[in-house]
Amino acid sequence: MGAMLGMGAAFMPLQFCAAPKKKEGDLDQPVKSTLSAFGIQLYSVKEDMAVDAQATMRSLAGFGYQQFEGFDGGKGILWGMQPAEFKSLLSEIGTTMVASHANVFENLEAQAAQAAEVGMKYLICPWIGPQKSLDDYKKKANEFNQIGEKLKSFGLRFAYHNHDYTFVNQEGSIPQDILMDNTDPELVDFEMDIYWVHVANAKPAEYLAKYPGRFRLCHLKDAESGTGDPHQRGVLLGAGEIPYADLIKQSKAIGMEYFIVEQERFPSGTPMEAAETNAKYLSALQY
């Protein structure tokens, strides 16, 4: 009897054995991702860094930041520490020092040697100021190429960090285009400060697509809606109008490697509280 039942099942019409059809609306949802690592520009907590750099960096690591981007707060790019001491701290708290903003026009070799010794990948020019003419921007682009060539010998990359002024029309052109078009991709990368592009009424997504692979780092900070003073529109991540989930997904697909929080305006709370809130936001953000 059991054998007959088995044979009957074997010859049962296929429609009775087939898996049930999916109903409309049951389509597979795309799998979303979260950032496996993100960093913070230490300028965001500059007052705390000035008081106790090591304690501040330990606290930031506790918030979930795995990467740091530094700046020269008056004690050099290693905050008065020797390279061995600095490396030991990073190892202890489980972080890496991806880059530092620096005055790349002075003492470049000495800074490059320190950066290379602690494992940085970049020295970044954070500011050149509005230039008087497009020719002046071309001259800066040529300087960038020269700096990139020098840093290459130390195993480092050079990058330029934008503000809003390079996205404001000048003599019928966008100065940022001049910098992009006159620098050698083998020597010069760029760090997009997404906030400054946004408040300059440019489109971060469109500009990233225009120059795929040139922006390897970015600054994440949000902007409240409106057209007021661009220096006064900064808010915590997720509290503004910049679509970071979409931008992160797009930029990762075309070469962005480092996502670095920078907070310069604090509508409420302390800089360290803002750093913790921003870390929680990025840890949970799906794209």
From TrEMBL:
<dbReference type="InterPro" id="IPR013022">
    <property type="entry name" value="Xyl_isomerase-like_TIM-brl"/>
</dbReference>
<feature type="domain" description="Xylose isomerase-like TIM barrel">
    <location>
        <begin position="104"/>
        <end position="282"/>
    </location>
</feature>
<dbReference type="InterPro" id="IPR036237">
    <property type="entry name" value="Xyl_isomerase-like_sf"/>
</dbReference>
<keyword id="KW-0413">Isomerase</keyword>
<dbReference type="Pfam" id="PF01261">
    <property type="entry name" value="AP_endonuc_2"/>
</dbReference>
<protein>
    <submittedName>
        <fullName>Sugar phosphate isomerase/epimerase</fullName>
    </submittedName>
</protein>
<dbReference type="InterPro" id="IPR050312">
    <property type="entry name" value="IolE/XylAMocC-like"/>
</dbReference>
<dbReference type="GO" id="GO:0016853">
    <property type="term" value="F:isomerase activity"/>
</dbReference>
